[in-house]
Specification:
Length: about 120
Amino acid sequence: MPNQATATAYALQPELVGRLAKFFPQATPVRIPVKLSRSEGTEAERSLSSDTVIEFGTSCEVLFATERPLEFADRVLLESKDGSLRVEASVVAVQYHPNRTVVAARFLKNVPNWIVKS
């Protein structure tokens, strides 16, 4: 049964992130797999990373769900699998759900053309 619960949690992830995306009118669905880690704290805290998916993005923010306990103003590092995106961001919104934290994080620096609308 634990695998079924995990599968259900991942299936609900886009829906949960979509609820937070309603507060970001410019958010566009993207689905970009990334590695998430903290960019501040102790070395042990920074060395912990997890995989997640950026579900929505704006020109300066990303929205995703994670199993990690993140709080407002935490700094995170997001790295895409192909290395095309490596950016530090600060958590600007959080919604807590059972086994999931839904997060919006704002880039600390300008990231030109990371998302292109058609």
